[in-house]
Specification:
CATH superfamily of the largest domain: Bira Bifunctional Protein, Domain 2
Strand order of the largest sheet: 3-9-10-16-13-12-11
Largest sheet: 7 strands, mixed
Length: 514
């Protein structure tokens, strides 16, 4: 029996805790809302995602270099970037439940429910008509489906228009018109909509009286922009070129929910690509295609991903699109690709008084580069992998197993060495094999419990290969190699194991698919 979206998401959260992927921060003190810690398996998976992104972005691209900028920055940085004046969310409270919500999320979720209703109608029709079914034609001609889709578009168009006019009462009116209710109380007893700035403020100084006001950075991009000329000059860079960075960011999300999807402390993987004005749309299209190709290299079904062009552009952009992933709670943004124009460099030039320009030897003129940004939420990427990989499987003997079908190279552990028994020289042989592999791969040594239980444990944390050492291993040097996904077993000589793990579970395999 298929799980509901809510049940499916609860299973992901439960699995993450049970198998050491994600813990509630400060759990022994009843936790800290919307803040999480990554456990022993979670940190390995997270680091593998980082490595895959970094190598694909910096190592495979000759014109992209890396940076690690500080979390604390001069407060004028955030004035120049617009965050002090314009980094706000529209919030609304339900008077009965006393719960607070982002107005835009309420409307987006409502529109997505309408689109999901349309999709269900299409799926029913596809089952009814079989191979001759034309989904696109059905969407455009079926009154019910067309109605759902048109209504969703109308809601978001009204919202965009209201926000562009800064008409918060109009935003509230859309919520009332659509009879959107509080998920907790079920009532539509809403307060007014108001704006709330998301930046965390702090102080720097030895005494309170002389302390300077600072902010925890709400994004990592500005650290790249203020170092643009440093990298350009010291790296002897030539436009077009990119600067990549992985780092923490902080947002005072009043409405933080959906596990690690929306947190107050999170990690971003961003690349700012500096181009000549007039070429930005060409590079925008290039990076849209390149970033989707990166996601597709993971081997999951393409139907779980889609592009969504922004209805309302940020103040700095002339084009923007999201790569959305189908989480258990619907399609949501996992990565953004934005054409940021020259807004950021121009603003920093204005506020700092220092030129942020490069010289074009062809035209003999100075110009301010335009920027194309790719920005992916590491925590959301982590959640997408867990959501898509976890599977409950019924075996031929009627027993159940939980298997985490992570891409092999991203799995926390690439292989597990399992001596069949704790005696007769089997542990010594197994330890020797573990030593052969541990300098190149994350390898587990596990001798606790029956072999079947160990297989199940490693299935549940996503280990692609289990290597069992038995008495025959001592006789002829062969071991049993078990595949996580098929559970097939075969005998191989220990001298073959390194190459098998490398060709099965190294990042090289993923990188060559991009």
């Amino acid at each position: 029996m298929a799980l509901s979206p809510e049940e499916s998401f609860k299973r992901v959260i439960s699995h993450a805790k049970e198998y050491g992927f994600v813990f509630q921060s400060s759990e022994i003190y009843d936790g800290l809302s919307a803040v999480y810690d990554y456990g022993q398996n979670g940190v390995l998976l997270k680091n593998n995602i980082k490595s895959f992104w970094w190598k694909s972005m910096v190592q495979l691209n000759e014109n992209v270099v890396g940076l690690d900028s500080a979390i604390f920055m001069h407060p004028t940085v955030w004035k120049a970037s617009g965050h002090v004046d314009a980094f706000n969310d529209p919030l609304i409270d339900n008077k009965d439940s006393k719960k607070r919500y982002r107005a835009d999320v309420l409307l987006e979720d409502h529109a997505e429910k309408l689109r999901q209703k349309a999709n269900k109608e299409v799926e029913k029709a596809a089952q009814r008509f079989g191979d001759s079914f034309d989904a696109d034609l059905f969407r455009s001609t079926n009154p019910r489906v067309a109605g759902y889709l048109a209504k969703a578009d109308e809601i978001m168009a009204r919202f965009v228009a209201a926000m562009e006019e800064e008409d918060l009462e109009a935003v509230r009116q859309i919520i009332l018109d659509e009879n959107i209710t509080c998920p907790v109380s079920g009532s539509a007893n809403w307060t007014e909509v108001r704006q709330f700035n998301l930046m965390f403020a702090t102080k720097m100084g030895s005494v309170a009286e002389g302390a300077s006001d600072l902010y925890l950075r709400p994004e990592t991009a500005q650290g790249i922009f203020v170092n643009f000329l440093n990298v350009f000059k010291t790296g002897r860079m030539k436009v077009p070129f990119g600067i990549a960075q992985i780092g923490k960011a902080f947002r005072n999300e009043i409405v933080a929910r959906q596990f690690i999807f929306r947190m107050r402390e999170f990690e971003q993987m961003e690349m700012q690509f500096f181009v000549k004005p007039g070429t930005e749309m060409e590079w925008y299209a290039h990076w849209k295609e390149a970033r989707m190709r990166w996601h597709m290299a993971l081997g999951f079904d393409a139907r779980h991903y889609r592009f969504h062009d922004h209805d309302k552009l940020a103040h700095y952009a002339n084009a923007a699109a999201d790569i959305e992933f189908q989480f258990p709670f619907g399609f949501k943004e996992i990565e953004g690709i934005h054409s940021r124009t020259d807004f950021d460099l121009r603003r920093h030039e204005e506020f700092s008084g220092k030129k942020q320009q490069v010289f074009d030897p062809e035209t003999q003129e100075n110009y301010t580069p335009y920027v194309v940004e790719t920005s992916i939420g590491l925590d959301r990427m982590f959640l997408s992998l867990l959501s898509l990989s976890i599977e409950e499987e019924t075996l031929e003997d009627g027993s159940q197993r939980t298997v985490l079908r992570l891409p092999h190279a991203l799995a926390p552990t690439q292989a597990a060495i399992l001596p069949l028994m704790k005696k007769d020289g089997l542990p010594e042989f197994a330890r020797s094999l573990h030593t052969d592999l541990k300098f190149d791969f994350q390898v587990a040594y596990d001798e606790k419990d029956a072999i079947g239980k160990r297989y199940r444990r490693h299935d549940a944390i996503g280990t692609p290969l289990c290597i069992t050492v038995d008495h025959q291993s001592l006789e002829d040097g062969t071991v049993t190699l078990r595949d996580r996904d098929t559970m097939e077993q075969k005998r191989v000589h220990r001298d073959e194991v390194f190459d098998i793990v490398r060709t099965t579970a190294s990042l090289e395999v993923l990188l060559k698919k991009i």
